[in-house]
Amino acid sequence: MEQAKREVTERLEHAFAFLVRALEAINRKRVYPLERAHYLLLLQLREGPASVSSLAASLALDDSTVTRQIAAMQRLGLVRKLVNPTDGRSALIEPTPRGAAGAEAMQAARLERIEALFAAWPDADRAQLATLLGRLNRQLAATLAALDDKPCGQDGNG
């Protein structure tokens, strides 16, 4: 790797390490109306009722993980199960009014905090960051999909 490219890669590695650390620290200090996992599932359900498998796939999780989260969300009154009209052996998950309201409240709080965080940034910089983060998320999804196709420990990356 040429020196300039290596220096940029090192800067990215450092930036990611501290970004993740800062986000974790901020998350521990914030009070939100929902757990993050519940919020993400409820966001997916805005498109309409979905199966556990489709929710798991959309969030790159195991079905068993989503099943446990859905059970907890049912106990909290955030979601309910419906009979799947195309396969009576399975269920579809949909948000309850309480779950939808909780997701709306959480999104409003998050948007307000993001707006405050970037208030001093020019609009063009904010837009560029949003574009680059979208690109990064697509690349991460593709990388994860490729890893899912390989045996554990066979990714060839560090």
TrEMBL record:
Alphabetical list of Pfam families matching this protein: MarR_2 (PF12802)
SMART domains for this protein: HTH_MARR
Signal peptide span: none
Residues of the HTH marR-type domain: 1-138
GO BP annotation list: response to stress
SUPFAM superfamilies: Winged helix' DNA-binding domain
GO MF entry, a single one: DNA-binding transcription factor activity
Gene3D superfamilies per the UniProt record, alphabetical: Winged helix-like DNA-binding domain superfamily/Winged helix DNA-binding domain
Protein name: MarR family protein
Species classification: Bacteria, Pseudomonadati, Pseudomonadota, Alphaproteobacteria, Hyphomicrobiales
